[in-house]
Amino acid sequence: MKRSVSISLGSSKRDKSVRIDLNGQEILVERVGTDGDVAKARQMYLDLDGKVDAFGVGGVDLYLRLDDREYPLHAALRLVSGVKQTPLCDGRGLKHTLERRVFELAKSQLGEVRFKQAFVPVAIDRLGLAQAVAEVSERIVLGDLMVALGVPIPIYGIPAFKRVARIMLPFVSYFPMSMIFYGSGGAEHKPKYVKFFDGSDLIAGDFLFMRKYMPASLAGKTVLTNTTTEDNVALLKERGVNTVITTTPRYDGRSFGTNMLEAALTAYAGKGRRLADEELNALIDELGLKPSVVHLNTSALGEGL
């Protein structure tokens, strides 16, 4: 049996191990959180190098992609330096394939969708998702400067976002781990930027960034995100969310991060390296991978659906 292991700087409370069937081939998929312990995570990578078929890199990105250029995150690359044999998958491949195609792949479950306004708290590490959201929204607000850097300036539209990103990414590339790793627990803070949550019928992006400042009520909204546990879904239902779309399929009650799914696909392919975007898109189609769509409060579906 092939084995993929996601070693995450995130919380160990979100750990999970499942066997998934990909076209008749069983893959053992494991997620191991280290609660922000960089030294522990680094040692796990070194200990398992060559002993598993693919690594997922959880909690941080190794590179951030803008159009055809990738910007290295040097602090994250130091975390995995010394890994020589096992392919390293930080999920950026699926962020520009599976997430970029989310509404196309979910069409059979959602139909044609249109939203008045979308709010993406942080888009820099999920630009494919933000671009997909922009195509089905009359207006998109990107909160990277606000949520990630504390600068109270919203960004409107993908072109404006790219202009800001081109200026910022050379600096972000050298951010310390304390700035590129959000945190192991994903605890909520006092609600902030509430007018952008309230004014949007679609909230999209990384769940931990979304949860950071989200208000007590998200009544009538659609949430598009990446990784959700059963507790996360229960929280969103409690907040009044109508529909949750997770970009990755659900296995044994939860969805996994793009890094973990990309590692599973890499193990399945057996090429001993990361897969290119075209290879990932081919596998998405071959295996029939689709986002997960859960209707939580179906009595009052929003206009977007």
Helix content: 25-40%
The share of residues in extended strands comes to 15-25%
Class from secondary-structure proportions = alpha/beta
Spatial strand sequence of the major β-sheet: 10-9-8-11-12-13-16
Q: How many angstroms does the end-to-end distance come to?
A: 41 Å
Counted up, domains total 2
The chain-level mean pLDDT equals: 93
Radius of gyration, taken over Cα atoms and rounded to an integer in Å: 18 Å
Element order: H for helix, E for strand: EEEHEEEHEHHHEHEHEHHHEHEHEEEHHE
Biggest pleated-sheet summary:
7 strands, mixed
Number of strands: 16
Unreliable residue runs: 299-305
Number of helices: 14
Estimate the global geometry from the Cα principal axes. Answer: globular
What is the compact description of this entry?
The protein is an alpha/beta fold and 305 residues long. It is built from 14 helices and 16 strands.
Describe the protein in words.
By secondary structure, the chain is of the alpha/beta class. The protein has two domains: 2-91 and 253-287; 102-250 and 291-300. 35% of the residues lie in helices and 23% in strands. The chain is built from 14 helices and 16 strands. It has helices at residues 38-48, 74-80, 92-95, 102-105, 107-110, 127-135, 144-148, 158-172, 177-180, 194-198, 207-213, 230-238, 258-269, 277-287, and strands at residues 2-8, 16-22, 25-33, 54-58, 63-66, 69-72, 88-89, 115-120, 137-142, 155-156, 202-204, 222-225, 243-246, 250-251, 254-255, 292-295. A seven-stranded mixed β-sheet has the order 10-9-8-11-12-13-16, covered by helices on one side. The longest helix is centred in the middle third of the chain and has 15 residues, at 158-172. The protein is globular and about 50 Å long. The termini are far apart.
